[in-house]
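May I ask for a single protein's sequence together with how it folds?
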Amino acid sequence: MPVITRYFTKEFLKTLALCLSSFVALYLLVDLFERLDDIVEHKASFSQVVKYCLYQIPMIVYQVLPLGILLCTFITIGIFVKNNEITAIKAHGISLFSVLKTFVFISSLLCVFSLFLQEFVLPHTNWQVKKIKNIHIKGKKEATHLKKEDFWFRSKNRICKIGYFDPGKNRLYNITLFYFDPEFRVEKKIEAESAVWTKDHWVFNNGVERSFKKTGEMKTKKFKSREIAFDKIPEDFISFRKESEEMSFTEIRAFINKTKQEGYPTVSFEADMHAKISYSFICIIMAVLGIPFSLMIGRSGGMALGIAISLALGFTYWTFFAFCLSLGKGGELAPFISAWSANLAFGFPGSLSLSARPAVEIKTFETN
């Protein structure tokens, strides 16, 4: 590896580490202040709070890594321009692009690292974060018997079976309620195709109620829609149910295939599955966007302008990415398109700007 390439790599990684550590510290500080009342109220132990913070770090790094790369690119190249190092490189006849492409290569390695995090690390750490937050910080009861689908639980004089819960629509599917008398004999059974949460209660749809008398007689009554007392709210099902961010790509793909076979909607999960891949590739696009922008700003723009532009660009990117993904989850866009639209929209102009490197190099050299 040439000396200049090693130098650029060292400075880039050093600045990136500073950016990421700053983001992580700021995020944890704000999060702890927001949950301080819950921590004190439910007397969470110091060790649990420390675990909660440590388990959050991989997810924070995963989320802010693309923005860190963009900000790092602006800062690093801005320092090089300010110290006339870019001018020195050009004066010695060295291609600026051949050196700066090191940033793209490093970002590609960080993209692979991001994929590794979301596949092998984040499913475990995100589940632990939610478990500590709900049980030790918010004081909820542990309910490990709840899972993604086909789960059973007991509630007062009932035993309930839920086929599937859609958190996006707050809707239950394939519900069966068994009601027992004090002698634990079944006195009533209600089956419903679905139930939707409306304001503060559940409305069961397309169901049948069967009442069993001690004499052995059974009475059947069908209903189209009925409000049924049910002492669970959507948050109870979400709290101990694996969400998309708590599953790896292979896990969520297997879950989607199984859910499709059972006839339940999977659009929201499909969008999340494609986003697990597309989000990691933002690392490369941020570097591709950052290099030409930082070169064009040059010495005249100043470091403050570069940081402001990088933050504004990152915010715009994330807003557009989240907007497209929400359209995919709502069925307005195909899941694959919704997950990759932002990458295509920003990656294409970034690639064009980077491919016009001769003009950019000459402008940068003349400015200096």
The longest strand covers residues 186-198.
